[in-house]
Amino acid sequence: MTEYTATVTVRLKRGVLDPEAETTQRALERLGFDLDDLRSADRFEIDLDAASAEEAADRADEMAERLLANPTIHDYEVAVEDR
Amino acid sequence: MTEYTATVTVRLKRGVLDPEAETTQRALERLGFDLDDLRSADRFEIDLDAASAEEAADRADEMAERLLANPTIHDYEVAVEDR
């Protein structure tokens, strides 16, 4: 078993409204920053033991499917690295 | 001017309690997943125009300092890539 950290990034699908990101963008613009767009995402860093990086990625993928992401409104991606 | 996307990742500092991450970890364990630790972070993807990647990173850094992160409880990191 090797120790891995799986990173799951959960984003809203394109077209889903994100009022928090809009508010953040407007607040930055009010502070004088010039930006074209701002998107927000949630990032989960999960430490786990697995036999291989593939197994760690599969388990993180299942965690995203079952709990971390809502497939109706979210896309997600999984990245795995050694700890 | 080149179009860049700056990614600002905002994490709680080590030692700052994160009840949301603890709840998420326990919920995953209740679903039968085996994990050592789970940390959550906010990720902001900011599209902006700048003369260089360094300038884009500097501006994203200032956005983090002034609005996106709270220096008392957060660490943050900035990554820039071409759009």
Automatic annotation (TrEMBL), chains A, B:
Its main location: cytoplasm. Part of the FGAM synthase complex composed of 1 PurL, 1 PurQ and 2 PurS subunits. Pathway: Purine metabolism; IMP biosynthesis via de novo pathway; 5-amino-1-(5-phospho-D-ribosyl)imidazole from N(2)-formyl-N(1)-(5-phospho-D-ribosyl)glycinamide: step 1/2. This is Phosphoribosylformylglycinamidine synthase subunit PurS. The keyword Disulfide bond does not apply. Belongs to the PurS family. It is found in: Cytoplasm.
